[in-house]
């Protein structure tokens, strides 16, 4: 019997500091086999590695620099190459532990972008991280917001072969270009309140779908902390849309995740 793999979560977020052990225990009780923990900025790299070492074979780390960086809790800006410069030595240090480079991507939400230059520096940071992933033979764990088409085009231009597009917010027709390139798309529990994600799942072949929670964000209820244990909500909704059994959704999405993140295989008992 297969369990779930959460292909994209922020288990290092401060939201989990108080009850992290309980959150992990509850996720295991809910049938999770593995959590893929992504990073947004260099400041949390050590914490993610420490969490993965505390739960070996269950929490698997990704390091990368997100297209949006915090200036303060209230203020964000687009990423610049200097953010990546600070991150590179730490990625290099932990490269053998990583299952992917991420969270990387493009975010063209108007409030983060004041000029074409801002978009260009996001592109440069993504291109550099795509090169690093290729050098390390790792997949990319990718964010795209208001930038579905430019993200998929850039990945293809850069010759990226292994990528997870997480919580993709673009049109199904654009996602299908990613499917042709062999990319996977992970679906969060917020699908139950997102018509766009429901349409996306209708179009995507199950062979290209993975599960994620993006915890603590993108839960079934807005403004409520999301947890990895909610992954079953994504799986159940996909099973309803696709008209296949829940078991089938779990089995196929887990096989997809193992194909995309082969380093998980050694740790997962079948
Ligand atoms: Zn994320």
UniProtKB/TrEMBL annotation:
Physiological role: Exhibits 3'-exonuclease activities and apurinic/apyrimidinic (AP) endonuclease (in vitro). Show preferential AP endonuclease activity on double-stranded DNA substrates and 3'- exonuclease activity on single-stranded DNA.
Family: Belongs to the metallo-dependent hydrolases superfamily. TatD-type hydrolase family.
Chain positions recorded as a divalent metal cation 1 binding sites: 8, 10, 103, 214
Positions that bind a divalent metal cation 2: 143, 166
Keywords: Hydrolase, Metal-binding
Presence of the UniProt keyword Metal-binding in the record: yes
Name of the featured protein: TatD DNase domain containing 3
Encoding gene, per UniProt annotation: TATDN3
Record InterPro entries: Metal_Hydrolase, TatD-like
Species this chain originates from: Anabas testudineus (Climbing perch)
Coiled-coil regions listed: none
One protein family per Pfam: TatD_DNase
């Amino acid at each position: 019997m297969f369990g779930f793999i959460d292909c994209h979560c922020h288990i290092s977020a401060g939201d989990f500091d108080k009850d992290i052990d309980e959150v992990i225990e509850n996720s295991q009780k809910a049938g999770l086999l593995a959590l893929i923990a992504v990073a947004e900025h260099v400041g949390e790299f050590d914490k993610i590695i420490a969490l993965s070492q505390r739960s070996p074979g269950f929490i698997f780390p990704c390091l990368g620099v997100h297209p949006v960086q915090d200036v303060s809790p209230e203020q964000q800006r687009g990423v610049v190459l200097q953010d990546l410069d600070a991150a590179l030595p730490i990625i290099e240090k932990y490269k053998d532990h990583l299952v992917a480079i991420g969270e990387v991507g493009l975010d063209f939400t108007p409030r983060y972008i004041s000029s074409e230059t801002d978009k260009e520096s996001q592109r440069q940071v993504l291109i550099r991280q795509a090169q690093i992933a290729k050098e390390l033979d790792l997949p990319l764990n990718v964010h795209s917001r208001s930038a579905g088409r430019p993200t998929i085009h850039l990945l293809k231009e850069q010759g990226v072969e292994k990528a997870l597009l997480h919580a993709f917010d673009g049109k199904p027709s654009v996602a299908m270009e990613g499917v042709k390139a062999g990319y996977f798309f992970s679906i969060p529990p917020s699908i139950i309140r997102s018509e766009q994600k429901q349409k996306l799942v209708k179009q995507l072949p199950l062979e290209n779908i993975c599960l994620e929670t993006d915890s603590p964000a993108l839960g079934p209820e807005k403004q409520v902390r999301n947890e990895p244990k909610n992954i079953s909500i994504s799986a159940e909704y996909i099973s309803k849309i696709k008209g296949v059994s829940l078991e089938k959704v779990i089995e196929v999405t887990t096989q997809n995740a193992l194909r995309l993140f082969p380093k998980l295989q050694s740790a997962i008992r079948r």
